[in-house]
UniProtKB/TrEMBL annotation:
Belongs to the ABC-4 integral membrane protein family. The keyword Transmembrane applies. It comes from Frankia nepalensis. It comes from the Bacteria. This is FtsX-like permease family protein. GO terms for molecular function: transmembrane transporter activity. It holds the Pfam family FtsX. The keyword Lipid biosynthesis does not apply. GO terms for cellular component: plasma membrane.
Length: 824
């Protein structure tokens, strides 16, 4: 093969055929063709590694961006409500509400009316619309398939995505609505008997699959929902509201022209209109909290993408450098025949750069292919455009940065190696090796310790292997420790202050359904019950803000374990405890004196804030919004009245919630009370952790792969670069099994250092991260323990290093000693 080069002939002009440019770069293309044929498998493996790493990063980053913007994108197209007014009073004057200043739209819904879907009793039906505004001028949902129903058609309906998943039915299919008789509706409204659907039957054609940012947003575990039209309500009005309609309760979704800024004025006007405080649900605040959830999930996914990318840079960098150094060494012969430094640099770097480009294309294709699986968690509940998503900015950013880093690493390595060659490191002793020598350990063990800790004359990659092992173990243990905290929060309502396992609603709107004292005594008598709180719930005004307050009225001798975050629980009529969210919004601190009003907003009473504590989650209050007052303090505020009267029951650890519920229902009788499992109500804060629970596992696995790659690289390179030392030992009498022991000892030392440093640091790091998350959520911090990870850390590390060392150990044992010594 004849190679003709001339750098002087390169004058920057583009020529063809036998031009100087062609003569300069023809050897590069010739080498590249040869290199691709000779090392195609290594380059293919690099391309696959790039595809796996960058595809994962692109998928996670694009999913994070999609999830973070999902709520804002759906709110932009759904005419969202600003506030929901829930007076829960029959005969409330909604026409007067429509005339209030700043009210842009009002959509009324029937709270007490109900119907069922034949053959699908699990389906949740939306509250019937009491006008044609709902799903038209307020909370107009995004259409995922089909169209919105015609408000004038009683036989059309829309369903949620979960409905499609649960039933297998979709647009064009028909279901049958089963309605109650007017008498059955009246009896159910008065809590006289459970409702039965023995009235008319109405076929419904599903015309669309929809979702909105609030009204039709469904929980993670929802079986799905179905919504009908105003024409359906008009056609079956008596069946839905009762014979007279006197007991029917209508609530409303309201959109204000000023948005969230108009809520205080609207609340004051609404209270004046009703002549008493009216409970409202701040939809904007609910959306803010939901946005916090989706942002948290997106941040978790983005953090995963960043950590995975940093790990990939290290892993890919090692692979690229190894390939470039090998190619540069092979080009040494051509250098003696006239190949220039620039040509050698480009020729050595071209293969890895091309393989990286191919891997990036494959990774981008994989990211687009799996995009329908995103966004994850809560964001998936509000995504207005599910399906394939091409995030060009993410693909271009990841591809551009990766290709640039690989090109720079490849060319600089190739240039440095071409100019200076591989410079051996100065041998340095280590304290561990000297200790092993003084202990009189066998030569194979002593040599293995030296190989693990000392670079030696061959410049073996020792420090990267140790750092890789430590970071890998630290990352796996830290990720799984953090994941233990996530899993605990996602599964344990007590972390959010939900300690009452069983609940019975014994009264509503100042009227008990039966003898509440009998219910309290029955609950207190159960052997598995450790605390009973006779709870009354009302809406007070704290510093001119509506706050749901709960009375702390414990059965004698059975104090409840309400989780106090700061200070103490209220003990006198002049004391109050607030949830952290209320305290944050009002700027109140423990010890402050607040103005609190009960039924009459104008009749404020000074009350001292004695502490911060979570409150029970219910349909109108989250665990972080509300407050506690003593029984006497509640009576002073509401004069014995209540919105709800509840009996909340706390059980001993290990007790069966369902068994206790069934016993209590049997003890009091179904006509007097109905006990339910208290933690059935989902917590959005728990949902946010369920949405990211899998990410720490993926990150731990990814970092584990990095550790395996670093240690494996060190062992393979160590045997190759230190084959002269092994050959000398073999020539001095070391057996093949002793040569194997050298490599096995080297692997064991690297693994032991990784465990000794990585395990404790990983536990501390995982707990520190979880404490920061718990404080900001907020929730009650409990130090997480990844028991399974800690138990398996040592055996897994032993197995991993053993498998990694097996091949290089066999190579060390099979060295052909004369050839190695002759080559050296």
């Amino acid at each position: 093969m004849t190679i003709r080069t001339s750098e002087a002939a390169t004058d920057g002009r583009t020529r063809v055929g036998g031009s100087p440019v062609a003569r300069v770069w023809r050897p590069v293309w010739a080498w590249l063709r040869l290199d691709l044929r000779r090392r195609w498998l290594s380059l293919l493996m690099l391309a696959l590694l790039v595809a796996l790493a960058t595809g994962t990063v692109m998928t996670a980053a694009a999913g994070a961006r999609r999830g973070a913007s999902a709520l804002d994108r759906i709110l932009a197209v759904t005419s969202p409500a600003t506030v929901a007014a829930v007076p829960n009073e029959p005969g409330f004057d909604w026409e007067a509400v429509r005339r209030l200043p700043g009210v842009e739209a009002v959509g009324t819904i029937l709270l007490t009316g109900s119907y069922a879907i034949e053959g699908h009793p699990e389906i949740e039906v939306l509250s019937p619309a009491m006008d044609d505004e709902t799903m038209r001028t307020v909370e107009r949902p995004a259409v995922l398939a089909g169209r919105l129903p015609d408000p004038a058609r009683a036989d059309e309906a829309v369903v949620s995505p979960r409905f499609v998943e649960t039933t297998g039915l979709s647009v064009g299919d028909t279901v049958t609505a089963l309605l109650p008789t007017p008498a059955a509706t009246d009896a159910a409204a008065l809590n006289e008997e459970p409702i039965s659907y023995t009235g008319p039957r109405q076929p419904l054609t599903i015309v669309g699959v929809v979702r909105s940012g609030w009204w039709t947003r469904e929980p993670q575990d929802s079986p799905g929902g179905l919504g009908t039209t105003f024409a359906f309500t008009e056609t079956y009005r008596e069946n839905l509201v009762g014979a007279t309609g006197d007991a029917a309760i209508v609530n409303a979704m309201v959109r204000l022209s000023a948005g969230a800024a108009g809520i205080p004025a609207f609340q004051e006007a609404l209270d004046r209109l009703a002549t008493h405080p009216v409970e409202t649900l701040n939809v904007v605040e609910d959306q803010r909290k939901f946005r916090e959830t989706t942002t948290f999930e997106a941040a978790g996914l983005a953090a995963f993408a960043l950590a995975a990318y940093l790990a990939a840079v290290v892993l890919l960098g090692q692979a690229v450098v190894r390939l470039v150094i090998g190619a540069t060494a092979d080009l040494g012969v051509l250098r003696t025949l006239g190949l220039t430094t620039r040509q050698a640099t480009v020729a050595a770097a071209a293969g890895p750069v091309l393989a990286t480009a191919a891997g990036l294309l494959a990774g981008a294709g994989a990211a687009v292919a799996v995009s329908p699986l995103f966004p994850l968690g809560s964001a998936a509940l509000v995504e207005p455009e599910p399906g394939v998503d091409l995030d060009v900015s993410v693909i271009l950013a990841v591809s551009g940065v990766t290709l640039l880093l690989v090109a720079v690493a490849a060319t600089t390595t190739a240039f440095a190696t071409s100019v200076g060659g591989v410079r051996p490191a100065r041998p340095r002793g280590s304290a561990a090796a000297r200790l092993a020598y003084r202990l009189g350990l066998p030569v194979p063990v002593l040599t293995g310790v030296r190989f693990a800790l000392e670079p030696g004359r061959a410049g073996a990659a020792v420090r990267p292997a140790l750092v890789g092992a430590v970071v890998g173990v630290l990352g796996v243990v830290g990720s799984l420790t953090f994941q233990a905290g996530v899993a605990d929060a996602a599964a344990n309502p007590a972390r959010f202050g939900q300690t009452f396992a069983v609940v019975s609603i014994v009264g509503f709107n100042d009227r008990d359904f039966g003898p509440a004292d009998d219910v309290v005594r029955a609950a207190a008598a159960d052997p598995d019950v450790v605390a009973v709180n006779d709870t009354r719930v009302g809406v007070a005004t704290v510093e001119r803000r509506p706050v749901t307050v709960f009375s702390l009225d414990e059965v004698a001798g059975r104090p409840s374990s309400v989780q106090v975050l700061a200070g103490r629980l209220p003990a006198t009529p002049g004391e109050i405890v607030l949830a952290p969210g209320v305290a944050r919004r009002t700027g109140a601190r423990v010890g402050d004196v607040l103005t609190v009003a009960g039924r009459d907003p104008a009749d404020g009473t000074p009350m001292r804030l004695t502490g911060l504590a979570f409150v029970p989650q219910d349909p109108h209050t989250t665990y972080d919004e509300g407050g506690w007052v003593s029984a006497s303090g509640y009576h002073a505020l509401f004069d014995g009245g209540f919105k709800y009267h509840e009996v909340r029951v706390e059980l001993r650890p290990g007790a069966s919630t369902l068994a206790v519920r069934d016993r209590l229902n049997e003890a009091v009788g179904a006509d007097d009370a109905f006990f339910v499992v208290g933690d059935e109500l989902p917590l959005e804060a728990q949902d946010r952790f369920r949405g990211v629970a899998v990410l720490p596992r993926f990150l731990g696995a990814f970092l584990g792969v990095l550790a395996v790659g670093a240690v494996g690289h060190a062992l393979f390179v160590g045997v190759r670069r230190r084959r002269h030392e092994v050959a000398v030992l073999r020539a001095l009498g070391t057996t093949r099994w002793q040569a194997r022991a050298i490599v096995l000892t080297q692997a064991a030392v690297i693994g032991a250092i990784g465990l000794a440093v990585g395990v404790p640091v990983g536990v501390l790091l995982g707990r520190a991260l979880w404490r920061a998350v718990a404080t900001s959520t907020p929730l009650i911090y409990v130090p997480p323990v990844a028991a399974l990870a800690l138990a398996l850390a040592v055996p897994t590390a032993v197995l991993a290093v053993g498998l990694l060392a097996s091949v290089p150990a066999r190579r060390a044992a099979r060295l052909h000693v004369p050839d190695v010594l002759r080559a050296e």
